[in-house]
Amino acid sequence: MLEILQSPSLAEKTTLRIGGRAIAEVVARSGKACEALPETLRRLGGVPHVMGAGSNILARDGELPIVLVRPAVRDMPEVVGEAAGKTLVHAGAGVRMPRLLGFCAEHGLSGLEGLCGIPGTVGGAVAMNAGSYGCETCAAVHSVEIFELKQGFMTLAAREIKYGYRHIAVPGNINEFIILGVTFGLTPAERGGIKKLMAFNFLKKKSTQPVAAHSAGCVFKNPEGGLSAGRLLDQAGLKGKRCGGMAFSHIHANFLVNEGGGSAAAAFDLIAQARESVSRRFGINLELEVRVAPWPSR
Fold it and tell me: pTM score, two decimals?
């Protein structure tokens, strides 16, 4: 059965802690519950938007004409087989990434160490192809179970998924889909080495990024050519710049943080200033990595 919450506040649903209210939030705690999703969405009206833990979302202020769809399938990580020399680990889309990484470390399974310190859910990490320190989530994916509003349930093999920098695409005429579960193909390795690398990556992230702040992660994508958006913002004088409770972090200029009482209006003001400054100084147009809600449908 689907759970329906009326008028949810996106300020309470996102890690950036800003945003207005949606029409409703629909929570699916099992794949079977999704069978009622098309009719439920038709009844509620508004535009459906799939959201995980809200760790990469910049929500607009005011009343938002959207219905949040949250896959909360929390099947805990488990080894489900082997294929092509890899150990297959399955996890529900609603499982938090730290829980999955902890399972991998305890079972001596390598391939996701670079994601240590990344918040959010398994489903969200795949949907955005989250990455860090040369590791991309989708590079370790074996298969993905999804529910598509028109076509229903399907399982996609890794070869059917096209992924790039913070983006995935699936085959066919598939628009709004919900990730329900993911199977990863991981390499057996020595547990101590995996834990040591995860600890190193986490400490490095903690020392260079505002991991404890109310943030949505990196605001801008890194431009092509190996350039760093954070370095460009720093050189353009944006590090630590404040506006109405929002600020570019003094630790890492590509992180927009809510210092208290921030709003989407202030966030967009800072983003506009950053884009203009970087464009004027370097001739580079920065592209958003954070998703803006409401965001265009796929």
Answer: 0.90
